[in-house]
Every structure is written in C-alpha cells, then in structure tokens.
C-alpha cells in the first residue's frame, strides 16, 4: 500500500536579478529540513525553471506563466494534521526569526495523489518513482473547464500515460487532483485542479521538446485547460560516478 496520500506544491516566480542564492541556501539548509518534524512529511524536493527552462515551457496562463521554482512535499497519514501543522510551522519559524526572506507565492496547493506509474525501463515500482534520482521533471498543471472529466481521465490512464511511459527519458509519472476530503484553508485551497509530475532521467529540455506534441493532446478535447506545462531541473546533482 502506498504511503503517500497527498502533496503540497508551492510555486514561486523566478529569482530576482542579482540574486546571490541566499534564499535557496536558507530554504534547502534551514526551512525544508524543519518540515520533517511534521508527522506526515515523507519527502521534500525543489525544482527550478531558469534560463532556457523558462523558454522551453509548453504552456503558461495567468500567474503560473511565471513559474520559476516549485517546492514539493509528499504527505502521508495523518494528512489533515500534517496540513494544519504545516501552516502553523511557518508562523512559528517566522516568530523565531527564521523566515528572513519571502518570495512572491504564485500558488500553494495540497492535492490528493490519484494515480502513479513507473516506466518499464526504470526497473522500480511505481510507488517509489519520486525517491529515485532524477534530472528534473515535466510538470503539468491543469484545471477542468467542464464537469464531464471522466472520459478525459479514462483516456489519460488507458492511452496517454502508457504511451508517455514508453518515451525515452521518462522514468514515471504521478498525478494529483483536488479533493474535498480534507479541510483546507484559503492558503492551500482553490479551484479544482490537476497536477501531473513526469519524472525524467534524461536532459529535461530535450525530453520536454520531444514530448510537447503528446502533452498538447491533453487539451485537444477542451475538457481541461493548461495553467502551466514545462520542464524544471532538479536541485540534486545526477552523476554519482565518474569515468
């Protein structure tokens, strides 16, 4: 049984001009580790879209057209308590002087994990794909424009994802969606939304260009519209060995 039940997605804009990396150092070395004290935080990672990554995005609408960073926390039981404690922890750290800099938030959402897949070539189970080292991700954020999404979801899971998982450079994909199961505050709740994370073990820019026509097919029916779709690079170095 999969331990992950939901995920936080926190999207912010690109780093300001002249940024010296102090915000990233603080977040990676101070703020992100503190989240592991919460009962349901299973995993945390950050992805970045800078330079050529911003130019390579497939779609972008409204505030999410300006995505520069995405922080992802995987959440297990107890989800409700973890959500509540997550919101409180930020306030406590700020009171302790450990929230020195804020970046403009484009979106913070807690979405339920709905489906998870591994590419056959990845040789791992679908439940562990996010924990496998990856070079980056192709992230797709969509919102429904019709109440009749069942046919679109069926197409995703019977045709779209199986084809995507056969593409070179794709290690797996996890899909999340809005739910009313948990009580979420205005900071982490919004209009219904789907977020898909496609995990990549090849150059994200190359894979995103290759997959763009297939990704655009997701919107051909008009059932959903894209808010963001594009590659982001991992903050973690990929190569563990040298020749």
How would you sum up this structure in a few lines?
This protein has 243 residues and is an alpha+beta fold.
CATH architecture: 2-Layer Sandwich
The oligomerization state is single chain
Our estimate of the beta-strand percent is 25-35%
Shape by Cα distribution: globular
Element string (H = helix, E = strand):
EHEHEEHEEHEEHE
Report helical residue fraction. Answer: 25-40%
Distance between the termini: 39 Å
User: How many domains, in number, for the residues?
Assistant: 1
Structural class: alpha+beta
Mean pLDDT across the residues is: 92
Largest sheet, if any? Answer: 8 strands, antiparallel, barrel
Number of strands: 9
Uncertain stretches: none
Lateral strand order in the biggest sheet: 1-4-2-9-6-8-7-5
| Rg (CA only) | 17 Å
Within the CATH hierarchy, at the fold level, what is the topology? Alpha-Beta Plaits
Total of DSSP H or I helical runs spanning 4+ residues: 5
CATH class: Alpha Beta
List the topology elements.
Layout: E1 6-12, H1 22-34, E2 41-48, H2 52-55, E3 59-60, E4 69-75, H3 79-95, E5 105-118, E6 136-144, H4 150-164, E7 170-177, E8 194-200, H5 204-216, E9 224-234
Antiparallel strand pairs: 1-4, 1-5, 2-4, 2-9, 3-9, 5-7, 6-8, 6-9, 7-8
Organism: Pseudofrankia inefficax (strain DSM 45817 / CECT 9037 / DDB 130130 / EuI1c)
Protein name: NIPSNAP family containing protein
Please, could you describe this protein's structure?
Helix content is 26%, strand content 30%. It is α+β, with helices and mostly antiparallel strands. The chain has one domain: Alpha-Beta Plaits (2-Layer Sandwich), CATH 3.30.70. The longest helix is centred in the middle third of the chain and has 17 residues, at 79-95. 34% of the residues are buried. The model has no long low-confidence stretch (mean pLDDT 92).
């Amino acid at each position: 049984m999969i331990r992950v039940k939901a995920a936080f997605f926190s999207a912010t804009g690109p780093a300001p001009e002249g940024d010296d990396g102090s915000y990233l150092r603080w977040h990676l070395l101070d703020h992100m580790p503190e989240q592991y004290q919460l009962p349901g935080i299973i995993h945390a990672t950050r992805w970045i879209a800078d330079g050529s990554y911003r130019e390579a995005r497939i779609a972008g609408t409204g505030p999410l057209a300006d995505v520069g960073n995405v922080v992802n926390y995987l959440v297990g039981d107890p989800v409700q308590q973890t959500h509540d404690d997550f919101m409180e922890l930020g306030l406590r750290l700020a009171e302790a002087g450990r929230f020195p800099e804020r970046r403009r938030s484009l979106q913070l959402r807690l979405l339920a994990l709905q489906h998870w897949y591994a590419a056959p070539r990845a040789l791992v189970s679908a439940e562990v794909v996010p924990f496998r080292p990856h070079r980056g991700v192709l992230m797709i954020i969509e919102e429904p424009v019709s109440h009749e999404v069942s046919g679109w979801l069926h197409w995703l899971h019977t045709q779209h994802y199986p084809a995507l998982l056969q593409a070179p450079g794709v290690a797996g994909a996890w899909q999340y969606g809005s739910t009313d199961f948990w009580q979420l505050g205005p900071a982490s709740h919004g209009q219904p939304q789907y977020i898909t994370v496609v995990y990549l073990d090849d150059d994200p820019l190359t894979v995103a260009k290759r997959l763009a026509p297939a990704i655009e097919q997701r919107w051909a029916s008009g059932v959903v519209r894209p808010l963001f779709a594009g590659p982001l690079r991992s903050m973690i170095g990929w190569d563990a060995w040298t020749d």
